[in-house]
């Protein structure tokens, strides 16, 4: 379980997250959506501990690992592709070296306290290496690289020869090989062709950990995610289902908001008409006064605005729904099944 507890984050006067609480379980598949600049990247970076919230807490199991694929290509150079990819397992290599040291020690000493301690540590090292599938790392690295479109000939090329887009693929390959418990992907399909996207969809389908993905590829979101987290004006709202289902629910919510707005307008107009018609009649003075005070108390709702939504449609087609981005009102927000509370 990963939990955001009362998180706030601002840049200057701009509030990105406003006392947000939310949680996801260890196998969750979440699509994070919102307008440009809503704060999706900031949220992923906070979960990955690359930036800190201003207040609130992010909690996850003690030994769990978070991995983050940034939206921008990382700098790389000086290593060949396969070595660069495997370098993400550096800690595993260290463990393996430690394992060999312990083997030497155990060959020299056959009893005593240091033997017992070494034996216990050796067991832990082997267990960790096996748990992380270390012995098949090279085969897995190649499978991931080939899945993402690299060829056998590329494996020994220096990574500095590759363009920014290709370096994104390498960063993605490293992350998948590292297999963190919580995988944060920020626009992972931007530099992938269709074959690589299809491969990635299948790969993520069988992924053991939890995933949060930001993507403008709605087909990809539909295939990979089973719930959708909307970030808008500092608040999070969770919807069951992938992106297409989210759009339908969001449109329903929008329709409810429009209807509520129209109802309220009608009510206000009715009261105003009553007041202007009877305001000089002494016999109606009490009723007029009561309408006036109701009018004063009623805070007019804003007309929900329809906005163009992201993600944009991708080159692959999926039952596309129209994009409307309603103003979220707390009243209508209750229509979304939501495990999150805001503000
Ligand atoms: N380090 C920073 N300093 C100041 N402002 C920042 C910083 N990082 C992000 N912002 C601002 O915070 C807002 C949210 O940015 P963020 O990149 O998280 O949005 P986003 O939803 O990922 O956008 P996009 O869809 O374009 O990727 C933007 O207005 C951005 O300019
Ligand atoms: Mg972003």
Quickly describe the structure.
With 343 residues, this protein is an alpha/beta fold.
Explain this structure to me?
By secondary structure, the protein is of the alpha/beta class. The protein has three domains: 2-79 and 137-240, P-loop containing nucleotide triphosphate hydrolases (Rossmann fold); 82-131; 252-335, no CATH class. It is 44% helix and 17% strand. The protein has eleven helices and ten strands. It has helices spanning 40-47, 81-86, 90-108, 113-131, 137-147, 164-178, 194-205, 218-224, 243-278, 285-297, 330-333, and strands spanning 2-11, 14-24, 29-33, 55-59, 66-69, 182-186, 210-214, 227-232, 235-240, 341-342. The strands form two sheets. It has a six-stranded mixed sheet, sandwiched between helices. The structure holds adenosine-5'-triphosphate and magnesium ion (MG).
Oligomer: single chain
Which cofactors or ions or other ligands sit in this model?
A: adenosine-5'-triphosphate, magnesium ion
Characterize the main sheet.
Answer: 6 strands, mixed
The helix/strand class is alpha/beta
Q: In CATH terms, what is the architecture of the largest domain? A: 3-Layer(aba) Sandwich
Total discrete domains: 3
Q: What is the CATH class of the largest domain?
A: Alpha Beta
Radius of gyration: 27 Å
Q: How much strand? A: 15-25%
Assign a percent range to the helix content. Answer: 40-55%
Number of DSSP strands? Answer: 10
CATH-defined fold name of the largest domain? Rossmann fold
Largest beta sheet: strand ordering? 5-6-7-3-8-9
- Total helical elements: 11
Distance between the termini: 21 Å
Average pLDDT, rounded to a whole number, is 86
Low-pLDDT runs of 5+ residues are 317-343
The CATH homologous superfamily of the largest domain corresponds to: P-loop containing nucleotide triphosphate hydrolases
Overall, the morphology is elongated
